[in-house]
Amino acid sequence: MGIVWSEVPIWWFVARATGVMALFAMGLSVMLGVLLSTRLLPDRRRPAWLLDVHRWLSGICVVGLLAHLASLVADSYLVFGWKELLLPGTSAWEPLAVSVGVIGLWTLVIGTIAAVLRKRLQRRTWLILHRLTYGSFALSMIHAILAGTDATHPLFLGFALAMIVLVLFLVVYRLLVTEAPRRSTTRTGGSADDRLAALRSRPATGARPERARGVAAESDREPASLH
Asked: Quick count: other Cβ atoms within 10 Å of Cβ 8?
């Protein structure tokens, strides 16, 4: 007995596959992006191609997400229109899960646009917008668990759990090990280079010219102890 292809929900299978692909590509991209911003990889041991892989994974995520949306619209197993896929709260099927996915979609769109316009944005603005991808990953994972047909598959659960643990570890490591010293440095008057520059520019009041020159000479040797 042959397969009746007209009865096979091909687009539904495509939607599931592209959704999982986009989710895992996003997770790997987030992990690599956080890893590159921590001190786990010293500058001298950080290959330049890692940033290219990060961007490449982001591109795969965007392509997979577009294919996921298009295949859902083309599918007749579950009826979705563009309105249900782009506006939260408009889906009759699993409204909470779909709304979470839609919000995750828009946070990803904002983060992606920020990445494209990085050179035209202020660094602080870019950082705030780009870090929305953390929220997008979390929302997408919740969407996949609540609405995904494959959410109960052991292989999916294993990969998802490993990805969640790794992302959380890297984010916590960045906050405690990488970001905290930077904030402490800012509170104590800037970096070592900033303090050294302030020392050099401070006039040597009440000192003889020979002593002032001695202070300057000592300040030239200061970086060894400040770093």
From this structure: 10
Average pLDDT over residues 171-185: 74
Coil/strand/helix, residue 34: helix
Question: What are φ and ψ of residue 190, in 5° steps?
Answer: 100, -175
Statement: the pTM of the whole predicted model exceeds 0.90 = no
Q: Would you give the distance in Å from CA 94 to the centre of its chain?
A: 27
The separation between CA 89 and the C-alpha centre of its own chain, rounded to angstroms, equals: 26
| pLDDT at residue 215 is higher than 90 | no
Q: Is the pLDDT of residue 200 over 90?
A: no
State the Cα–Cα distance between residues 164 and 145, nearest whole angstrom: 12
The answer to whether 15 and 154 are in contact (CB under 8 A) is no
**H/E element, 66:** helix 49-74
